[in-house]
């Protein structure tokens, strides 16, 4: 069915006369009458009665007018929604982020500014480790992610650095390490160590292990945690020590303390990662805000 004919019909009903509607559209009166006749033929019944005083709806016409008015309203709304989605101002944005990063001021600020600027875009945030985030982005289950060390050889991904963190030794406040903090990694060789399984996030795992090995440290792993929050709880329970990003201490349970080591200097860049071929405009809007934030921070430092 031709939507233009439906709109003509609406104008004729609202104006009450074909001649008035023809001037309003604008369209020649005979052409408008022809369009109304084609519409009635398509519907299969008379919608309007014509007289020298104007037009009047039939019973079928009244029902058709109500239904098509709602239909045209929904069609106009669908067009507006499509335009807003194309401009990144409507729809849904699926983001991955680790549990601990949700407390980082830079991340909170980025999400808040996106919500303020694009309130009609629904943010769906999923907590995942870096490795699973990469897989979810590749498969299209996530639109973007915030993670450490995306694979450098993957040309299908793009990334932007949100901020840089550093590593700290995390111990129970009642442990001997807390009372006599070590200065170097090698001093931890005989300590019970809490770590995570490599399969969870292999790139991040390998970079940390290589950094440890360069300084003569081989972790004596006695317990594995599935994520940073779990590892902090295990440390708090006195099951051993661990090495974690400094920002995790923002969510550390009571009785956990951190220490800087002189040779623990691996930089942890937290990256915003997305697919190079992503066609979702809301992703581009998030990237624009992140890049603007980084530029402003850089200018302030200078």
Automatic annotation (TrEMBL):
Keywords: DNA-binding, Transcription, Transcription regulation. InterPro entries: LysR_HTH_N (IPR000847), LysR_subst-bd (IPR005119), WH-like_DNA-bd_sf (IPR036388), WH_DNA-bd_sf (IPR036390). Gene3D superfamilies: Periplasmic binding protein-like II, Winged helix-like DNA-binding domain superfamily/Winged helix DNA-binding domain. One of its GO terms (molecular function) is DNA-binding transcription factor activity. Pfam families: HTH_1, LysR_substrate. GO terms for cellular component: protein-DNA complex. PROSITE patterns: HTH_LYSR. SUPFAM superfamilies: Periplasmic binding protein-like II (SSF53850), Winged helix' DNA-binding domain (SSF46785). Residues 1-58 form the HTH lysR-type domain. Belongs to the LysR transcriptional regulatory family. This is DNA-binding transcriptional regulator, LysR family. It comes from Vreelandella arcis.
